[in-house]
């Protein structure tokens, strides 16, 4: 009897431990979902009601291709489509910029009501002039921004972009930059509306942009 009682106690303890583990796992999942929603906000139709202000976007101070200092206030009054990347990017950035360019062409005159912006994550190599020339090779309407490393880091931070320099000891001058690759749609007041993956097709992007123009 004593043995059976001990086994019953151990079984009860195991069940309680398992239940506690399941509850903790469920709680972790809920917390993760809340954090993701806070980071990326509305990801569906931009006309749908939002549950709160997304923590994406904010003040920045950078330099354009002409060498002029610009801030987010210089672009107020028009929606912005903001894309972070770098000119030596082998595939993701050119692909994303090509899609943006194709969407702008589809929008035609409506595109004039939008400011597409490319912000470098590699200010060490991408001077304002280099960045500006790079984006103009994709579409004349795209604005290229760079600046001192601290200012670029500030823009990266407010848009919650991941960017990390990856060096190769054998070729230190030919480093890469790992970075997230979302297109951020901001309203005319600089508030976050939604984001798109860099793989979004031009037709979809043009359709969604037209809704806010």
Automatic annotation (TrEMBL):
Transmembrane feature ranges: 18-38
Binding positions for Cu cation per the UniProt entry: 89, 93, 179
Signal peptide, first to last residue: none
Disulfide bonds: 89-93
GO MF terms, alphabetically ordered: metal ion binding
Any Pfam family: SCO1-SenC
Keywords noted in UniProt: Copper, Disulfide bond, Membrane, Metal-binding, Transmembrane, Transmembrane helix
Domain (Thioredoxin): residue spans on this chain: 41-213
Domain of life: Bacteria
PANTHER family referenced in this protein's UniProt entry, alphabetically: ELECTRON TRANSPORT PROTIN SCO1/SENC FAMILY MEMBER, LINALOOL DEHYDRATASE_ISOMERASE DOMAIN-CONTAINING PROTEIN
Protein name: Electron transporter SenC
Organism: Hyphomicrobium nitrativorans NL23
